[in-house]
């Protein structure tokens, strides 16, 4: 009787072991087990994380707005850049030159004085003035993706009177330069934190190099 029970027990263990994937992989011939579809998922997930254009744009937009002022203001009924606006745009240009992979869009705004059509045109002239000045600072116009005017439709301060804070342009990260999109593959963090990486390099390594981050556009 005990022998019978022992045989039944061994058969049961053997049957369970034969259906256990871990047992089959260990005992079976190398390569006998087929991939269940999960092989390579880790690499795929890493690649997607490194090349996710949307996250890249969000991260760069956040950094740009935190590290430089994205906004300049204008006198009433004017698209002329005063010295304060030009200084802000020089700071923007210095930041933009660090990241030749990134494109930007400039939005023009006005206060609520005047007609909708006139303010739409005025907002566009302000955006164009900013684009022209950034271009004069060595930024390629191909990276300034577009100029757009919101006119009086998005005031910071809702008032019918003259309000300087509403008379503004806003520069924003808009995307990635087409011919440089491949640079994001595996370099997401390196690009995002480029100046931190460069700050750790010995001074002697940087001597004689005008732009460490790569050619500006």
TrEMBL record:
Coiled-coil stretches noted in the UniProt entry, renumbered to this chain: none
Origin: domain of life: Bacteria
UniProtKB keywords: Cell outer membrane, Membrane
One Pfam family cited in the UniProt record for this chain: OmpA
Matches recorded under Gene3D superfamilies: OmpA-like domain
Sequence ranges assigned to domain OmpA-like in this UniProt record: 60-177
Compartments reported by the entry: Cell outer membrane
Protein name: OmpA family protein
Organism: Seohaeicola saemankumensis
């Amino acid at each position: 009787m005990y022998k019978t029970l022992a045989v039944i027990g061994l058969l049961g263990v053997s049957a369970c072991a034969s259906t256990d994937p871990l047992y089959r992989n260990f005992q079976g011939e190398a390569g006998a087990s087929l991939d269940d579809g999960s092989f390579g998922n880790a690499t795929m997930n890493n690649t997607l994380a490194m090349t996710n254009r949307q996250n890249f744009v969000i991260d760069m937009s956040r950094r740009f707005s935190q590290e430089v002022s994205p906004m300049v203001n204008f006198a009433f009924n004017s698209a002329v850049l005063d010295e304060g606006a030009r200084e802000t745009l020089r700071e923007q240009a210095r930041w933009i030159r660090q990241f030749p992979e990134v494109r930007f869009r400039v939005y023009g705004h006005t206060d609520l004085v005047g007609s909708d059509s006139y303010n739409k045109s005025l907002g566009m002239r302000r955006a164009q003035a900013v684009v022209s000045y950034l271009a004069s600072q060595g930024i390629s116009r191909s990276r300034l993706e577009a100029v757009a005017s919101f006119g009086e439709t998005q005031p910071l301060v809702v008032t019918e009177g003259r309000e300087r804070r509403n008379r503004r342009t806003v520069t924003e990260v808009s995307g990635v330069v087409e011919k440089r999109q491949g640079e994001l593959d595996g370099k997401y963090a390196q690009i995002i934190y480029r100046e931190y990486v460069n700050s750790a390099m010995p001074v002697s390594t940087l001597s004689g190099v005008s732009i460490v981050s790569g050619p500006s556009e």
